[in-house]
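Weekly modeling sync, notes
Attendees: S.R. (lead), two postdocs, one rotation student

Agenda item 3: backlog of single-chain predictions. S.R. asked that every request posted to the team notebook include the full sequence so nobody has to chase files. The rotation student volunteered to paste the first one in as an example of the format we agreed on. Action items at the bottom.

Example entry:
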Amino acid sequence: MTDKNKDLAIYLHSFLTDRRKATFEKVLAQRTKHLTVVLEDIYQKHNTSAVVRNCDIFGIQDLHIIENKYNSYVSNQVAKGSQKWIDFHEYNQKQYNTEDCINTLRSKGYQIIATTPHNDSCLLQDFDITKKSALVFGVEKEGVSDYIMEEADGYLKIPMVGFTESLNISVAVAIILQDLTTRLRKSEVNWQLTNREKDEKRLDWAKKTINNVDEIIERYISNNNV
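Predicted structure, as returned to the notebook:
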C-alpha cells in the first residue's frame, strides 16, 4: 500500500465509529490467505452464496470462482452481506478457465487439493495444514472436473459412515473450513494476513462501509492536492 493510500485510510477511518473500527481489527486478526476456496462451475446460486458466507464466517479472505459452463451469482438473501468482506477472483474469459485458475494459484504458492469422496483421499483429520492450500469444490453429483483430478497435488475427503456418499457443497465447505481453520489457529503456522494485506483491507472495508464515500474521497483529494 502506498503512503497516499495509508493517509486516505486513516482519513476514512475518522468517519467510522469506535465499535466499527474495533470490529475490523477483530476480524482482521482472524483472516487468512493460507487457505483459499475454489468453486468450479457451481450453477446453483444458493450454494455459491452459502459458500461465500462460510468463507467469511471461518476467516477465508479469497474465493476463486471458475465459470466454464455456468455464471456464478451471489444472493444477498443467502449470503447475508458477507460478499462485501471477502475478495472474489473470477475466471471466465475463456471457454475453459480451470487451467488459468490453477496456474494462478500455483504461482502464488498454493498446492491444489481436490475435495472428493471417490478415491483414496486424505481424511480431513489427517490433512497437513502447514502448506498453503487451495481447496477445490465441484458440483454435488459430478464433483470436480477430470482436469482438476489429474492436476491436483492431493485429495481430501470428509469421513462418512452412512449410505450416502456426498454432502451438499456448502455443508462440505463449512465442515472442512471449520476443522482446518480451528487447527490452524492452534498451530505455529504463519497463517495470518501480512501487515500490508491488513492495511489494504482496512481501506477497502472502510470504502464499503461509509455512506457517500466517493464524494468524501473526492473532497479529500481536492483539499490535499492528492
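Discussion: group reviewed the output briefly. The longest strand covers residues 35-40.
Action items: rotation student to repeat for the remaining queue; S.R. to check formatting next week.
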